[in-house]
Design a protein that fits this description.
This protein is an alpha+beta fold. Helices cover 26% and strands 26% of the residues. The strands form 6 sheets. A 5-stranded antiparallel beta sheet has the order 6-7-12-10-11. It has a 4-stranded mixed beta sheet with strand order 1-2-5-3, with no helix packed on it. Strands 13-19-18-17 form a 4-stranded antiparallel beta sheet, with helices on one face. The longest helix has 19 residues, at 323-341. Residues 1-7 have low confidence and may be disordered.
Amino acid sequence: MTLSIPASSQADLTSLNTMALACHAKYFVSLSHEAQIEPILKPLVANQAPFLILSGGSNVLLPPTLRAHVIQPLLKGVEVIHEDKDQVLIEVMAGENWHELVTTTVNRGWFGLENLALIPGLTGAAPVQNIGAYGVQLDDVITHVRAYHIPTDSWHHLDKAACEFGYRDSVFKRQAGEWLITRVGFDLHKDNQRINSQYGDVQNAALEIAYKAQRASITPVDIMQAITAIRQSKLPNPANLPNCGSFFKNPIIGTPQFEQLKTQWPDLVGYRVDETHTKVAAGWLIDHAGLKGKGIAPILIHDRQALVLTNHSPSLNLTPAKQSDVAATQVYVQEQIASRYGIHLEREPVWIEEDGQINLSNTTLRG
């Protein structure tokens, strides 16, 4: 059956994913307005045609060929919903660049996003992963999400509770392929002295920035600048060395297991989650296992940031890396960490199958 949808074209997606994995889509269309969504998606659903919603490509691992219709939402705009002397509520369209949003809001004196500076990707993808960094998660500042529920052809306004956020998790991730996020709401504050600097390196860097500016206290702008500088010093720029950011989640293990590991590795870094669980720094595990710079070429662990897998095929003039190359290094790292510490690492980026389906498994990726 022929689909009566707006014409779409074939596309090479190698440059549209920050890992620069070789990928060719048979059908590709970009969206610039919410009004385009139903006319495109309804026929696909009615005909049971496979499709994939692709955002900024910063947290996905694409296959060599995508038989699915690839749809990229690039909706733009930031609207102030409410503002007073203490706070500002804004609604941001899904296609806005995340770091540019952070920079714009903080520089305008709207605070709350500063700890999430320099995270790659678009705003619409942020709730899916419940992005987080340096003691802040997206659900600390989010108010709502407007999204189109594809299976039921219906629009929804989901408040924070309805998003079911967890650590690097949300209802959008668990119901992958069912939602197309178009707008995200944020509750930001204007208190220039309210900061989150619980990480020592962030506080030290921010203090140095404040000192140079001849100020006695740290501001949210200092926090943003400090985190940006730290991330730039530790994380490779995807434009120069393809990667998809932090590749492994920080594992959460039982506190008794953590304490036992501490007897063997006293410097092991962990953060208490609750009375019985501790979150372990995955970067510490990989670093102290001696895995920096290692892997299975062309996908190697970054030599300065243990959480990042990097694609060296462009710099070495090799055949473009494929999804299976990433899988090989992922499994290599997982096996090394499990053997040494008895801890299983889970992948953070989303694994996409050829038909556009999302595979959340961390154990069946060798093929």
